[in-house]
Design brief:
Blueprint lengths: L14 H11 L4 E7 L2 E6 H17 L7 E5 L4 H12 L3 E5 L5 H11 L3 E4 L2 H10 L8 E4 L14 E3 H14 L3 H7 L6 E6 L9 E5 H12 L14 E4 L6 H14 L2 E4 L6 H8 L3 E4 L1 H17 L2 H24 L5 H22 L6 E4 L6 H9 L4 E5 L9 E2 L12 E2 L4 E4 L4 E5 L6 E2 L3 H7 L6 E10 L3 E7 L4 E2 L5 E2 L1 H9 L4 E7 L6 E7 L1 H10 L7 H5 L2 H15 L8 E6 L19 H7 L1 H7 L10
Parallel strand pairs: 1-11, 3-4, 3-5, 4-8, 5-6, 6-7, 10-11, 12-13, 13-14, 25-26
Antiparallel strand pairs: 1-2, 8-9, 9-19, 14-15, 15-16, 17-18, 18-20, 20-21, 22-23, 24-25
Helix pairs in contact: 1-2, 1-3, 1-9, 2-3, 2-6, 4-5, 8-9, 12-13, 12-14
């Protein structure tokens, strides 16, 4: 058994002390796995904590003091967690950056947060940092993880490699063996553990400060079975980490679940390899945003279209059964009837088991969708094939603790019931407010924005519009700032139309337009791979995104989808016209946030000519 230094004595439980405790109690148990040269490599709890300690000593040698900020600009990988835990151990705060952040956003995040150290993954991220380093006066050191293209070529005085940091840490650890334990012993519940920057859909991102107490409340909620999983997560649960760790929900599932419950984290190689890695890992708990669930469903539909006719007939038969099972589960709140269970058990042997194995969902016992609205049809599909899936709701400012559907009490179209000690209410303006010990300490260096969302009674104004369903379940209508008021005075929630259209495997993005306009229109972007496959099967030339989306046959396809969705809505809520987006929306072009949310203002500016074409001769009512 690996020898482990005794857990540091501290009266305040933190992420770091939790990892240290797992290392003491179960030193040889696997804490995380990652792929190297195509082979899964294991990292034990002992190795996890030992490396985090060395990184912490390395950061101490670089002058990190309590209250400082350490930024991480990297894809998900073990070093992200080593640095995160080490930073919290030093009573400093972690600041995560999205790998897709362009240089302008990197400059803003590093300068605004005042990060003293940046851990950058590779040459691409180092180049972004060096391009703006002169505008980030607090940034003293840039630590790079991958030396390729940097070592031997870059001579900047602020650069040092990850190996250099570890070497400094080992030297500091030998010279001052008690320094880390002494720092950890002074931790308080009010220490800021992380500053998580919000999406910034309508302006510069705001840094939400989450304290040690906030994180501990979130961990406790999930550990007691009052969170997303029931039974609660434990050491034998497997998770796949692939969404950006700078987002609060991925931090919950990857870092907080791991430190709190001892779950095993498996790092995906990249976002592109998620389907393959899902099949390899077969996680037991899986969180994803709607876009990923939609792509999994689209993949099933594409494979079905290419299958031989016997396989296609079998698939169609069992998918019809799954649709009926889904209808039953929707009606019963997620509880099987004797008939639906019998049909599913037969289907499991004949088809569902193989499908779930291929999707990487065979062992999933809890599947959660969140961070954006998801179409009920998508949820029903996964429920029908046996994946226990539901929608949850939370945000950075409340440590992702608000509501979730519970086993046996699922109401499709809602985000569920309040979790644990969370209080949820809806004010006179239909805005959702939450209150509990996980509500954040405020926005970093922005007291005005903090005052705008925190009431004197400790309630957090979420900015979301909602309503109660049957007095128990919360339904979110839309973001307050996104509600469209047409020239005729009709209030429309654009996300309902957008999500209804995005259930189609052929549509990736929809931006509904119509504020102070005479009618609703939309800008629509295709799902290139799916539409390309559709076009090839019709012997159409498949070329660039722009050319494919402008083909008359593709426009006709999209029109049929719009017509189908319009039938579900009242006349004033229907899309009267649409135009095809000529390109895929992109974070680096400023059209999407790091979480892939549409920046509506940026879209309106960039594609103003398309929008004007949708309203010939019309003017907007009300103030400009």
């Amino acid at each position: 058994m690996t020898a482990v230094t005794t857990t540091p004595t501290t009266t305040t439980t933190t992420l770091a002390s939790r990892v240290a405790e797992w290392a003491t109690r179960h030193p040889d148990r696997v804490a995380m796995r990652h792929k190297h040269l195509g082979i899964w490599r294991e990292i034990s709890w002992a190795s996890y904590w030992d490396t985090a300690r060395t990184v912490a000593h390395g950061l101490l040698s670089l002058g990190i003091d309590p209250g400082d900020r350490v930024a991480i600009h990297s894809e998900n990988r073990p070093e992200w967690l080593f640095t995160d835990v080490a930073t919290v151990a030093l009573r400093a705060a972690t600041v995560g950056l999205y790998p897709t952040n362009p240089p302008a956003e990197v400059r803003y995040l590093l300068s605004h947060s005042g990060a003293k150290v940046l851990v950058a993954e590779d040459q691409e991220q180092v180049d972004k940092a060096l391009a703006v380093v002169d505008q980030c006066p607090d940034l003293a050191h840039i630590v790079y993880l991958e030396p390729r293209g940097i070592r031997g070529r870059y001579q900047h005085p602020k650069l040092l490699s990850w190996q250099d940091l570890l070497a400094r840490g080992e030297a500091h650890r030998g010279a001052y063996p008690d320094a880390l334990a002494e720092r950890m012993a002074t931790a308080t519940p009010d220490d800021v553990a992380t500053v998580i920057y919000t999406s910034g859909t309508t302006g510069p991102p705001k840094g939400a400060m989450l304290t040690v107490a906030n994180l501990e409340f979130a961990i406790a909620t999930h550990q007691t079975g009052e969170g997303f999983a029931d039974p609660p997560p434990g050491p034998y649960d497997l998770l796949l980490s692939y969404l950006p760790l700078c987002h609060v929900v991925e931090r919950t599932f990857t870092t907080w679940f791991s430190a709190g419950a001892g779950t095993q984290v498996n790092f995906a190689e990249s976002i592109a390899t998620v389907p393959q890695n899902l099949a390899e890992v077969q996680p037991t708990i899986l969180f994803s945003v709607p876009r990923i669930w939609e792509k999994l469903l689209a993949g099933v539909q594409i494979r079905l279209a290419h299958a031989s006719w016997p396989k296609r007939l079998a698939a169609q038969f069992w998918l019809r059964r799954a649709d009926r099972i889904g209808d039953t589960l929707v009606r019963t709140g997620g509880r099987h009837t004797l008939a639906s269970r019998l049909v599913y058990l037969i289907g499991w042997v004949c088809w569902y088991r193989a499908l779930r194995q291929r999707l990487g969902l065979r062992r999933v016992r809890v599947a959660v969708s969140g961070a954006a609205p998801i179409a009920p049809e998508v949820l029903k599909f996964f429920m029908g094939i046996g994946v226990p899936m539901f929608e949850a709701y939370g945000m950075t400012e409340n440590a992702a603790i608000a509501t979730a559907n519970r086993p046996g009490r699922v109401k499709l179209g809602t985000v569920g019931e309040p979790l644990g000690r969370a209080e949820v209410r809806i004010d006179d303006q239909s805005e959702i407010l939450t209150r509990h010990p996980g509500v954040f300490a405020g926005y970093f260096r922005d007291p005005k924005a903090t005052a705008a969302v925190l009431t004197e009674g400790g309630w957090l104004r979420t900015g979301d519009i909602g309503e109660w369903v049957d007095g128990t379940h919360l339904r979110i209508t839309d973001r307050a700032k996104d509600i469209i008021i047409t020239a005729g005075g009709k209030n429309v929630a654009p996300s309902e139309l957008e999500n209804a259209l995005k259930t189609s495997p052929y549509i990736k993005e929809v931006v509904v337009i119509g504020d102070r306009r005479p009618y609703l229109t939309a800008l629509i972007g295709i799902e290139y791979d799916t539409v390309a496959d559709w076009a090839q099967r019709r012997r159409l030339d498949v070329t660039t995104y722009r050319e494919l989306s402008s083909k008359p046959e593709v426009i006709e396809l999209v029109q049929s989808l719009v017509d189908e969705v319009n039938q579900r809505f009242a006349s004033a809520e229907q899309i009267k016209k649409f135009r095809m987006l000529p390109k895929e929306l992109d974070h680096e072009d400023g059209e999407l946030t790091g979480t892939q949310k549409v920046k509506r203002t940026a879209i309106a500016q960039r594609f103003s000519a398309l929008i004007d074409d949708l309203y010939p001769g019309a003017t907007r009512s009300g103030p400009a």
